[in-house]
Amino acid sequence: MGLGSRDADAGVVLLLGGRSEIGLEVARRLAPGRVVVLAARRADDLGPQRAELSAAGAAQVHCVEFDADDFASHQPLLEKVIGEHGPLGVTVLAFGVLGDQARAEREAAHAVAVVQTDYVAQVSVLTNLANLLRAQGSGQIVAFSSIAGVRVRRSNYVYGSAKAGLDGFVNGLQDALHGTGIHLLLVRSGFVIGRMTAGMDPAPLSSTPDQVADAVVSALYRRSRVVNVPRRIKLLFIAMHYVPQSIWRRMPR
Ligand SMILES: NC(=O)c1ccc[n+]([C@@H]2O[C@H](COP(=O)([O-])OP(=O)(O)OC[C@H]3O[C@@H](n4cnc5c(N)ncnc54)[C@H](OP(=O)(O)O)[C@@H]3O)[C@@H](O)[C@H]2O)c1
Question: What is the best residue among 21, 22, 46, 126 to mutate for testing ligand 1's pocket, by most ligand atoms within 8 Å of CB?
């Protein structure tokens, strides 16, 4: 698909993290006429998600077992999806955990678990996926960074550090994929009001999964490198770098 095209790459829509609120909104928008594959833990328990995507017009919806923390399973899983359903059009890496910052400061194992899912597993999937898409010669990928990774805060530095690492990794991989025909989109959103942030007070410039998905899909069409959600949060991202550390360390979550 060329620049300015009003469609995403042809092929399967693969949602890694098949229950993600944001991921499902993206998949719903891309679903009409396509094969959608939901990859999630407890894949036999995805009835509502299947129904939602069928109602959105998906040609077929398939479910496959996926545990992001089982790194060895990533390549066989991606090969199986391509083998059974054909080339990948858009793959959305929507799995992730917020974790418990206070617990992560007490228990190293919890800190490692958060970073494992939010950074190491993403690196593993992205590397396998990039290699398979290179062979395929097409395909689009969506990866989710966050305001938490733009400048890491004391109040959520474990999750934030994983997002900062992912943000850097994706930037490098984007350059490695330059000229290959593969599009890797980096999403930097602020606070998203939804399940992951349930019970927390919305931060300024919050958005909803709907708004994030609208921005993601239009960035897929435009083949943008980065999409900030909402758009005006980019100014905050820039300003954040100029806040003195003595103030920054007291910033709330
Ligand atoms: N919500 C926000 O405020 C916000 C802001 C910026 C960026 N983001 C990022 O956007 C992405 C999507 O977030 P969301 O709000 O849609 O989150 P969500 O609704 O909480 O969905 C995250 C999904 O990840 C899955 N998951 C967690 N660990 C997994 C593992 N080991 N293997 C397989 N699946 C696993 C969960 O699956 P189960 O159903 O099995 O638990 C859950 O369905 C994440 O990367 C998140 O960090 C979110």
Answer: 22
- Residues in contact with 171: Cβ distance below 8 Å, sequence separation at least 6, in sequence order: 186
Among 118, 122, 144, 226, the mutation site with the greatest number of ligand 1 atoms within 8 A of its Cβ is 144
The residue whose CA has the least distance to atom 28 of ligand 1 is: 96
How confident is the model at residue 226, as a pLDDT? 98
The answer, yes or no, to whether residue 224 has pLDDT greater than 80, is yes
| Sole residue written with tokens 């435009």 | 222
> Is the model's pLDDT at 126 over the cut of 90?
yes
Ligand 1 surroundings by CB, under 6 angstroms:
17, 19-23, 40-41, 66-69, 94-97, 117, 144, 146, 189, 191-192, 194-197
- What b/e string do you get for 9-27 counting C-beta neighbours within 10 Å, with b at 16 or more? bebbbbbbbbbbbbbbbbb
Query: What's the confidence (pLDDT) of residue 79?
Result: 98
Digit-coded pLDDT (tens) for 20-79: 999 999 999 999 999 999 999 999 999 999 999 999 999 999 999 999 999 999 999 999
